[in-house]
Structures are given as C-alpha cells and as structure tokens.
Amino acid sequence: MSEENAKYQVYKDTAGEFRFRLRAPNNEIVAVGESYESKEGCMNGVMAVKKNCGAKVQDLTEDGDKLPNPKWEVFEDAAKEFRFRLRAPNGEIVAQSESYETKAGCMHGITAVQDYCDADIEDLTGSQPVIIAEPKVLGGVVTVLELSEPPKTVTKGQMLYLKGKLIKTGELYAGVGVENVKINILERDRSFFNDDLLAQGTTQTDGSFSIGWTAKKLDWWDSSVELYASFEGNEEAQPSKSTVYSVKVK
Q1: What is the residue extent of each domain of the chain?
Q2: Residue 35, class by beta-carbon neighbours within 10 Å (0-12 exposed, 13-18 middle, 19+ buried)?
Q3: With contact defined as beta carbons under 8 Å apart, do 133 and 123 qualify?
Q4: Residues 35-46: pLDDT tens digits?
Q5: What's the per-residue H, E or C state across 160-192?
Q6: What is the pLDDT of residues 83-112, one digit of tens each?
C-alpha cells in the first residue's frame, strides 16, 4: 500500500486533552491513541507507534505462548467482536482499533497500521480550539423516536428513504407528533469514535419524516452500516433515539 495521504492527526478533544489518530489514504481511521495532558506526550505516543509497529502479533483469543512487549494484541471485546491494541516496551497501550466483526478484518487492520506507520504528522491543535458549550435547556416532554425497519440489503449508490415518526408520551400527549424538528440519521460506531452523520430531515405536522440517504460503504473492513435516527431535544421535548438497524451495502 502507498503511504501517500496517510497521516497521523494530532488534535484536542472536547475535554481539552491531546489525542492522535491514524488516517488511511481513503480517509478511514485505522487506529487511535490514548488521551494526553500535553502535546509533547501525544507526539511521543505517535513516535511509539512508528517505532513499534513492526512488533509481532499475539492472538489472545487462542492459547499460545505469551510474547514479550512490544507487541500487537488481538482480543475479543464484551460484544464478542475483535479489536487490536499496540503495547509499547513498557506495557502501555499506545494505539488501539475500532471493533471488527471478524478476526481476519482485525488482522487486516493491524497490517494497515503497519503499512502506514511512517506517515507524516498533521498538527490540528492550532485550528481546533477547545470550545466549552453552554448547557442546553431541554423541555420536560418525553419523546419516542420510531424508525421503520429498512431493507436488509441495498446497492451502493441506491437512494434509501428512512422513514419514521417522533411522538410524545404521557397522559396529556400520548401519540401526539412532534412537528418541525430536526431528525439526524447516523451510523452507530461500535467503539470510541464519534457516530457518523449520514443525513438530516425535518418532521411533518404529525411527527413523521422521510429522509433520503445515498447508500455507500462507510467502513473498509466490512460492508454493513448500522443506522439509527436521533432527535437532540429542544425547549419543549426530551431527546430520543430509535432502534439501530444493520443494512448491508453491496
């Protein structure tokens, strides 16, 4: 694989701490680091990945001799999905991955990091000041967000219309739709990354919505997209989320 356009991005998170992520040329994040109080510590984390990315792999899902550090570890998380992490010589975890449905996909993820480990570093901290948002005042009306089950399989490039309804609950409002509010369609991330915003739409007078999304593969390691709808809440109503549905994009 070519290292062209692959890069480590150093940035500040919402807590004001420093983190790094490794982006592949297709813009997918293949590994992330821990949080650091200083930029220097974060840069040292990047250098630790660069220095140790050629380490051997220990599969913790199978019996075998314990390898010394540094090493890659492949393991199963609580959801029975596969992840990897890179341990430095001192045993500290310096990078880890998204979850994968298959062990083969997880192994490919390690290979991707190794292929891109000498990528350049992009410092985003100057363009990403820490912003402390004012707390949002939300209303007391409880809502339920319903999303109709989409097709289990769609074709890449196909327009998929995601339909549902946002309604109020309680004795006074049961079944009444929440009108003219924004609904987000997102892909649920199965780890520590942010969920991806796919599309947005607005509810009708009865609380119903129909939001179009052009189907595409979002993860390089598999073809499934975990979709759900979300309402962030407003001065009248509480936020709510729908059921998550898995759609295979072929």
Answers
A1: 7-123, 143-249
A2: middle
A3: no
A4: 898 999 999 999
A5: EEEEEEEEECCCCCCCCECCCCEEEEEECCCCC
A6: 999 999 999 999 999 888 899 999 999 999
Q: Which residue did the predictor score with more confidence, 227 or 127?
A: 227
* Cα–Cα distance for residue pair 211/215, rounded to 1 Å: 12
Instruction: List phi, psi (to 5°) of 105.
Output: -60, -40
Which CATH architecture best describes the domain 7-123?
A: Roll (2.30)
What is the Cα–Cα distance from 209 to 200, expressed in whole angstroms? 10
pLDDT tens figures, 188-222: 765 444 567 899 999 999 999 999 999 987 765 56
Whole-angstrom distance, CA of residue 160 vs CA of residue 122: 36
Exposed / middle / buried, residue 43 (Cβ in 10 Å: 0-12, 13-18, 19+): middle
Q: Are strands 120-123 and 82-87 parallel, antiparallel or unpaired?
A: unpaired
**Cα separation, 70 vs 85, whole angstroms:** 11
Alpha-carbon distance of 196 to 27, in angstroms, equals 13
- Amino acid in the structure at residue 54: G
Q: How confident is the model at residue 130 (pLDDT cuts 50, 70, 90)?
A: very low
The fourth-level CATH superfamily of domain 143-249 is Immunoglobulins (2.60.40.10)
Cα dihedral across residues 65, 70, 75, 81: positive or negative: negative
pLDDT of residue 189: 60
Helix H or strand E encompassing 108: helix 103-116
Q: Do the domains 7-123 and 143-249 sit in the same CATH topology, yes or no?
A: no
- Phi, then psi, of 214 in degrees rounded to 5: -80, 115
